Amino acid sequence: MSGNRGVAYIGPGKVEVQKIPYPKLEDPRGRKIDHGVILRVVSTNICGSDQHMVRGRTTAPAGLILGHEITGEVIEAGSDVEMLKKGDICSVPFNVACGRCRTCKEQATGVCLTVNPSRAGGAYGYVDMGGWIGGQAEYVLVPYADFNLLKFPDRDQAMAKIRDLTCLSDILPTGYHGAVTAGVRPGSTVYIAGAGPVGLAAAASARLLGAAAVIIGDVNPVRLKHPQDLGYLTVDLSQDASLGEQIAQHLRVPEVDCAVDAVGFEARGHGHEGAQHEAPATVLNSLMDITRAAGKIGIPGLYVTDDPGAVDPAAKRGSLSVRFGLGWAKSHSFFTGQTPVMKYNRDLMQAILWDRIKIADTVGVEVITLDEAPKGYAEFDAGAPKKFVIDPHGLVPA
Hints:
alpha/beta; Quinone Oxidoreductase, Chain A, domain 1; Rossmann fold; HCHO_DH_non_GSH; EC 1.2.1.46
């Protein structure tokens, strides 16, 4: 049996690489699962959702092994696995899904009804998501493998494009989901809140869907330089000019057709003073302000039911001061929740393989070793405009 190491959450602001058990073909409750496979991890990404836990903004327990953005090579398969074989390189949707329940059959794999005893929806390495061990590790278990895994058609081609393909497990489908649910179509004007990796993935997705103008906003001016270099329009929310005023500077009108919240519950206020303080409903309220009547708002940004570090008692329970009456008056549509990755990942794989989208360049992929993961977490938390991708076995080509 091989050894294994993984990135563990120790406490607020601290992670470390630890020796952890080599995975078995067992679920978190100790039941044998012949439908699972064990992967040698090829690449595994640090996500903003991981940072929420590492900052102490969830009820994640110390010792949790992190990592839900996984790409790997099959090295062992259970007896019920029929469509995969040893050596296959696969993308792992961050949703753990059974493929058998009502919601899975409806393609709502983000809220699978069977993989988490506590509530609908499961994920690897995440608090309250079923206890599935995370993949910021050398080896990881994937259950219901025939259903969950997206096998790449050619190993050499996959490894040559692994920096892009690693984004299929979460970030690219999540950004794409935000754009799709916001109603982006050819000719749309789109505003995306947040210039982090998910926001940049949403921007790239909006372009892929044919948007005429894509505007990205952030309270951190440093994060806006990269999208500017890529040709996106930007607004600096640390400035005192309102969001609508800054949008009008680009579009001549203070509104857009579609909007995407790629920030979530740790949002900060707008303006020179506001950007210094957390104001969790800021993004949602600002999007209602600048989205046209009968427009749509996609909300892939994470919101939680329990936030120990929230700014007020209501927000600690996930209750925010959202101007819902404004959204009702403007007949807005809102779409929330975990991205059902399998709804999009095969098509997005094709877009990558045929060079229709270069997502690694867009989100600033930087490959690091497993031992460099704590440093990657610290840099990402400090606002580095990068997407850190962990390469546990040195398999990613230089």
